[in-house]
Amino acid sequence: MSRTADPAAAVMDLPRRDAPDKLAGRTRYTVDMAGPGTLHAAIRRADIPRGRIIRVESGVARQMPGVRAIVTAQDAPGTHGIGISDHPLFAGKEIRYNGEPIAAVAADTLEQARAAAAAIIVEVEALPPVLTMAEALSPSAPLVHEGWKDYGVLFEGGARKGNIAWEAKVVRGDTDAAFARPDVTIVEGCYEVGRQSHMPFEPRAAIATFEDGRLHLVTSTQVPWTVRAVTSSLLGIPSSQVRITVPPVGAGFGLKFDCTIEPVAALLAWKTGRRVSLANSRQEEMATCLCRENAQIRIRSAVTTEGEIVGREATVLMDCGAYGGEQIFLTTMTAHTLGSNYRLGSVRLSTRAIYTNTPPNGAFRACNGVYNTFALERHTDEICAAIGMDPVEFRRRAVFRDGSIGSTGQVFEGEVLVPMIERMEALKQKSGSREAEAGGRLYGRATTVGSWFVFVGPSAATVNLNADGSATLVTSGVEIGSGTMVQALPQIVAGQLGIRPQDVVVKAADTDAAGYDVGVGGGRTTVSLGAASVKACEDVLSKLLPVAAEMLQTSQDNLVLGKGRIEIAGRKGSGATIASVAQRAQALHGPVTGSGSFTGQGVPSMAGCAMGHFINAIDIPIFAVHDCEVAVDPDTGHVEILSYKVVQDVGRALNPRAIHGQIQGGVVQGLGYALHEDVTIDAKGRIAQDSFETYRIPLAQDVVPVEFELFEGAPSIGPLGVKGAGEVPILNVGAAVACAVANATGKPVSRLPLTPPRVLGLLVSDEPPLDHPHIGKDWSSNVIALPQSVRAG
Amino acid sequence: MTMRLFINGEERSAAVHPLTPLVDVIRDELLLTGTKSVCREGFCGACTVHIDGVPTMSCLLPVIAAEGKAVTTIEGVGGPGNMNAVQHALEEHDVVQCGMCFPGMVMSMTAYMERRPAAPRADIKAAMSGNICRCTGYERIIDALLSIAAKEDTTA
Ligand code: FES
Ligand code: FES
User: How far apart are CA A215 and CA B40, in angstroms?
Assistant: First the structure.
């Protein structure tokens, strides 16, 4: 049966059902759930970046008041990881970063647990650490993982060697020939960014209990199924014996896209037989934040005077910290961000995740897309300056058109970026310039483009149509603040079933109740869970409509659903309530339930041009055009944002007001990244910023209202034509601000964040352009090995 | 030591050290978890409560300093069904995201909007600088707060 609901039925500014409780302090996050009688846990962490552990002695600590259990590496000897299984729960023999867990304590109170953790005797032999990627790549560098060759590789194809945890490459066409052409201008640039700390208001937190012999973890996570799999493997219990439930999450932004402290809480619950709560303090949260990684980039392009990019070579170094984690996977993304937007005659990309003795990095909203877009757009403006072309005109000419191929040979469909650029030009025209507000300061403006994607991946949904005409949606989706679980999903289900979204009950994630899901991140929730939900609704209707047709003495094809009723098309007021049909169906055949599942079918790429990539082509591209006006104070180096504009490709806007909230919030996070969120690593390998005071995130007075337009109608395999809208608003903020500051100052902006001292430095000094000596000018010196076929070609 | 507190109009007591931060007593002893403990050093505003009507960061205040005073937490200002004007405006404008900052935001801005109901945008922004939000980017919160005065204008 293929009865398609009118997608417009799902479009509305549905308010959030969780807002009243959140505004009244009634919502219970994981950090609010410990309650009386629960044991509290504390972690003993390494205070050197690299060393050998000689002895861990917990006898004295174990005897301290209130202490119930202490666990160490001996209790969980296994490892986990995303592409490489390189990460132990506790440091056993070797310490690889400052802050690495060595032991954990459960006690009656948090103070007792902390006191005992501090009393554990840890004897170490300190070794010289590798703190930067430049050091890690030097031939004499110590290996962060001496046993790297022996690790389990969970995904084949990436080149690895020593401190190079993973290398992904793209080779399409003959760049050597392109750069040798007599009619091209060659432009080369180096770029660099620091880390970004998520600072979710709720830290990572978990509460573990054993119930009827099974582990139950209540946790603040974006990935319940990852936590289930990793915890079961580290504890050595079957994953069917682990249940994960997730209350409302006090924001994630990607930080909670990995399993981190949950297995520690689980081990302590196992040892004590008690309910154990573990939550990071703000200092621990920042010291061990799985930050957006610091990165260094070199790009070289060959461009004609007409603005055709005939060749591009780039190398991206991503610091994964002490363990590979998400960065292994993210090496893939360079192809789809730095290698995207523009039509390239030939291209070579090398992206290397580098081990250092620093805290591991992770995923952060639009991940490495944010800095790759910064580097690419600064490079693009440098190209425009070199060939003397207006930056907007250059982009009009060079961006993807309908049928253009991306760096891995994927074909992009539809005219999207060019009309988006025109929409931005019209918006700029309409709003006018704020130049007058700059006063005596330097005024600059820039318009940038960016590409991101939705990682589709598998999702499952069950819909129960209840006899009262309401529906219950059961998925593993998590509400992390973006509103998907309280807005988009109930809207989609209601639209499919012809009921009100208020009548769709959404069950919070529980791995005992719902099927597998990759997790909430990468803008995939509305798309994948939405598509699974649509299929579950179709299943429900395949059971409901025959009953309705019989009740109404008509054929199924004549039936329409809406406003809680099933009616005969064209005859308003005919038919019956959905509740009465559901009751009839229940009496005849039993309760009406539907199930649906979804995964991306994959998009073809060109054979052989992507190596070590987890995804060779992207299922759902998302484009964004941003424009920014700035005023730069030449005396202080302070950058003020005068205006910010966004044109965002959303496919179909299901809840335009909620998308506005995501755009305003995402852009502001990007402004923090662009201007003042500065993570640095000190000489002891620690993240130097440990508080809201030392790590400055945007305050109310730092921000401006973002003007925006939603670009609808671009092709999408998402349900009802949607694309994820929450991930991408941060994507080109660093790029737009940097290009605007470069425009204002006439200086090469090659680094973020643009703190006042850095901007002042640019203004007053005549430093040579940024260079990365450890990234060779010859692209092929930045790869471990190329397959014979590529070398020959 | 037993501390006596007047919280949300009720007398409550807790056996804690007198220097325990008030936020810990509220959350861990009295189990009023609406007040959030986020930075614990007076920077984010998530722990804001009213002490004798004055917005105060409860992470910086030893419990003994609140003895004998009227403490109002987010649980005491109104909830679903009887929200105050600030809560109403924030709900109507769909500005809530993860929600962790909002209990403190509501406490601060309720006191401010009572004092300065017709405050202009720039002043509201300045008043909000003690309440950090990582999710929303602020501007829509300010739109919501400005709508309170606009509404009163049209109903007056
Ligand atoms: S927790 Fe008190 S100000 Fe942040
Ligand atoms: S809504 Fe998440 S911190 Fe404000």
Answer: 32
